[in-house]
Amino acid sequence: MPGTRRQVGATGAQTVTISFAGFNRAWATWIGDRLERRGVTVVQQRWDPPVEVPLEESLRDLTLSRGRVLLILSDWYFQLGPRGHDEWNRALREVVAPDQDRFAAVCLTTSALPGATSVLGAADLTNVGADEAERRLLVRLGLPTDPLPEPVEHRPGPRYPADTPEVWGGVPRRNTRFTGREELLNKAYQALQDAGSGAGVVALYGMSGVGKTQLAAEYVYRFGSEYDVVWWVPADRRALYRQRLAELAPELGLSTGVEYGERLRAVRDALRRGEPHSHWLLVLDGADEPENIWDLVPTGPGHVLITSRNPEWGEHNSNLVEVPVYSRDESVAFVRRRAPRLSPAEADRLAEALEDLPLLLDQTAGWLNDSDLSVEEYIELLEGGIDQNVVKVSADFPLAFQTAWSILLNKLKDTVPESVDLLRLCSFFAPGSIPVRLLKEMPAGELPEQVSGLLNDPLLWNKAIAQLRQYSVVRLESHESAVEEASSGESLYMHRMVHQIVGHDMTERDRKEFIDVVRRALAAADPGRPTDTRLWPAYAEITPHLKWADVLRSTDPAVQSLVLNCLRYMYLSGEYRAGIKLGERAMRAWRELLGEDHPRIWDLSYHYANLLRAVGDYAGTEAIERAAVDHLRTERGVQDLEHLRAAGGLAADLRGLGRYDEALEMSGWVLAAYRELLGDQDSRTLNAQNNLAVSLRLLGRYQESLELNQRTLEARRQFLGQRHNWTLSSQTTYATDLRLLGRYSDGLSLQNQSARVHRLVLGNDNPQTLRAEYNLALCHYRSGDRAKASALFTRVLERCERVLGEDDPLTMMFAAGQSCFAREHADIDQARAISEKVVDGYLNMLGEEHPFVAGTRANHALILRNVGERDQAHALLEGALAALTQAVGEYHPWTLGCAINASALRNLVGDPESAASLTDAVIARATETLGRTHPLTLSARIAHAADLRGVRERQRAEKVESEALGDLATTLGAQHVHTVSARSRNRPYWDFEPPIV
User: Fold this and answer.
1) Main-chain dihedrals φ then ψ at residue 320, nearest 5 degrees
2) If you write DSSP's letter for every residue of 898-918 in order, what string do you get?
């Protein structure tokens, strides 16, 4: 990184050129800063002498610079090339000894150095603090050590390199054999420095095995002193990424509870605001699927460094830096450092044979250095190939990797055979971060003899891990532990190339034995309560490994229970798509393994149907649940608990399909059966009571729903606690009923508090949190606070689109609300575009006859009215009114609201008599259904007054209007927006709000 830095402070009497190895950039930066504060002009010169150039010549080139030359001596400084001590001694005697006044040095290592370095008189900076290190530096250069003036001393500058950032976590150990990549490191650094606030994201991308993770780790160690926070997060799986990011909360000193969602929200908010630290670096390692996590990448004043095989990060506001294989010079230098016995020519031949792939060079050179095998003999083995029917790996893996790995595996078998057993166990976890502690936590009596010694003997375990680390097959991830403690390793990291080839290279007997151990380890780690949000991090850690352990082929009841609990966790946490994939595979596998009518099939059907229902596949779930209901009723009777559970699911399907009367009937007898069998306080009874309230609300029976939800909420608070996710859900449903009954202040008060706790407990992006915030937006809107409503409508819709997708039922529900708000208070074109998508989405999902289709068409008609398309609006509204009357009846609030809108259009198209007749009928029906002072009834009365004026019945109109205005003032308040609007004779309208089913 050559170039002159401008001096700072007083005019300096001298210039110093700092010669440093790239590894020691942080030291060079700190030393340069301390000298510049004293007026010294500093030139930074990275030391990387070409191997073909004599060392004497490279050292002599340093004397061409102005002023003195300060060498930063370290293990890396002498290893570059690499050069032996004899060569260094000759060069120092020839170049430095005759010109000692031009050279000075500081020493950063306690290792033995070439003897001739004594001529440099190096100041020892090891194991001293910043103040003493600066004093020794200044004394060695003959500079004054007087204190600096206050303004100069306290100016911000780089951190002393021996001091780690205030917050440091998850970073892999530094690779002391890291070689080359200077251009890439500087390119990434400059890209982050040049990015504006909130845009500091760089993605290091390239094929497997090119060293992306090692490059990111080296970046951290070289530039980490510029940050206050450095946090390394595995990003190959969304759930694990969220968990590890949440673990940053206590490190930042954030005041949060223990709930995972609360910590995640607090961390993202703190990073965005830059409080308490604005200089932060987040490393997302292995983020190969941008669409899974891009919405969770923090923004703010800090920097994000990503490693990925996927260049699509460029589409997500990231600067791309491609990581290729080594250049041949880098390969040769690396091999010679890894295997010093090899000559440059041998290293070159090996690099060519291994296609310059860093991972393969690392593994091969490591054991080749310990082997008697010559490079020529090794290359002959490579060229001989291996049986492709035995080992098959991905097409993007170099062919040489397959043979090289086979040779390495034989070496491991001969030296420490237990290391091969550990490797094979790891291959039944997902590649990447492997929680090997789960293996060690298993009861000893449950382990087969082949692995019991490995897992129960600490010495054998540590020996196996040490051997695998020596050949760079795995790396430890217990980074902050002491060496002795870390050797046990809570977590290992295995590269996907290694993972895949190990998985194919074992006998069928070994495969069965090892996979069974991993399955039982995962089952033993099952917390057993997927409804407890505090245990979600444990499930987030377990679920990625289910596929690799092939758990769906296990007949072990504990393993099968684990699968069911993971499905439940995925449903509750909003991981719908991943849950559906697992559920679909489980249905196929278990039917084949257990038979169509095995009890486990009905357990699985319940969880699978929940996930499908969450994404709107109501017809599919009805078929699944009806089959379960019919079978269980026949085999076990109507009072069987599993039959009741399936019947409750079928009722939910009927609600989704718009068959509300059938759903109500089924929900009613399910609740009655639970009460008889389990009593009023069992959680299953309370769930059934909640579901009956949903059916009542969908039928417009809001008061009955409110009373049921109030009882459910009180019971859940008492038996489950205030922060249980079901209690929080009850708060939202109760607040919804309050709002639908016109009790806006009560609903707002409850929902405001509940939404805050939702965010703390479940996190911002959990679907249940999104529902709570959407209802809060509606409460604000109905209460007249349009500004807060607007911000919430927009935020909730954007988050839901990112998390669940545009076609999810929840997204369409939120989009309907956003469209209605935009129609009245924002952008009519935006409202129209959103509304068209909503109508089409419901039509495709639910079919022509569904009441949601009619309701959203009624909303769309109001947009057409506002843009002057009256005839089309009128026709659409009349069709919607007829459809809603057919679907839910003329007394349903949806039908009544649609009729209020239809009466306005009848006036506009010249049919005032029909309009007045319609609102007159609506008043009677609404009064019977909702009461005389319900907001919908009051809207009908205000609308009817306008219709009476349209047919010139002014006296009657005045009476109706006066009474309605008085009731509005009494019910909502004289200054409520609805009251003020009615007083101004603005005709009221009704919005259809697609509800939760």
Assistant:
1) -90, 135
2) HHHHHHHHHHHTT-HHHHHHH
917 CB-near residues (< 8 Å, 6+ apart): none
929-964 core/surface letters (b: 16 or more CB in 10 A; e: else): bbeebbbbbbbbbbbbbbbbbbeeeeeebeebbeeb
* 319 CB neighbour count, 10 Å cutoff: 19
Distance CA 496, CA 504 (A): 13
Length of the chain: 997
Rounded Cα distance, 780 and 771, in Å:
14
- The answer to whether the beta carbons of residues 505 and 388 sit under 8 Å apart is no
Cβ-contact 575, 239 below 8 angstroms = yes
Q: Which two tokens stand for residue 727?
A: 């209690």
Judge contact between 937 and 959, C-beta under 8 A: no
What's the Rg (C-alpha) of the chain? 35
Can you tell me the distance from the alpha carbon of 862 to that of 832, in angstroms, rounded to the nearest whole number? 10
Q: Among all chains, which residue has been given the structure tokens 């939120």? A: 814
Q: Give the tens place of pLDDT for each residue, 479-504.
A: 433 333 333 447 888 776 677 777 77
Q: What is the pLDDT of residues 173-224, one digit of tens each?
A: 887 778 888 889 888 988 888 887 666 899 998 877 788 888 999 899 888 8
Residue 724: CB atoms within 10 A of its CB come to 18
List phi, psi (to 5°) of 41: -85, 130
How far separated are the first and last CA of the chain, in Å rounded? Answer: 62
CA 110 vs CA 18, 407, 634, 924: distances in Å: 20, 37, 80, 93
**How many Å apart are CA 780 and CA 796, to the nearest integer?**
14
Q: How many whole angstroms separate alpha carbon 619 and alpha carbon 613?
A: 9
**Closest among 15, 3, 326, 292 to 177, alpha carbons compared:** 326
Coil vs helix vs strand at 797: helix
Which amino acid appears at position 763 of this protein? G
User: Residue 889: which region, alpha, beta or left (left: phi > 0; alpha: psi -120 to 50)?
Assistant: left
Q: pTM of the predicted model, to two decimals? A: 0.70
Q: Which of 768, 796, 799 is nearest to 533 (CA)?
A: 768
Q: Which among 739, 762, 764, 765 is positioned nearest to 751, based on CA atoms?
A: 739
In DSSP notation, 327-356 reads PHHHHHHHHHHH-TTS-HHHHHHHHHHTTT
Structure tokens at 905: 């259009």
**Mean pLDDT, residues 879-905 taken together:** 96
Q: Could you give the CA distance from residue 40 to residue 751 in angstroms, rounded to a whole number? A: 63
**Cα–Cα distance for residue pair 994/841, rounded to 1 Å:** 13
Cβ atoms < 10 Å from Cβ of 543:
26
For residue 3, the surrounding DSSP H or E stretch is strand 3-5
Structure tokens given for 284: 């997302």
Do 141 and 116 form a contact (C-beta atoms < 8 A)?
A: no
pLDDT per position as a tens digit, 690-705? 999 999 999 999 999 9
Q: Are 629 and 658 in contact (CB under 8 A)?
A: no
Judge whether 817 and 808 are in contact, CB under 8 Å. no
Which pLDDT band holds residue 975 (cuts at 50, 70, 90)? very high
Alpha carbon distance 611, 575 (integer Å): 9
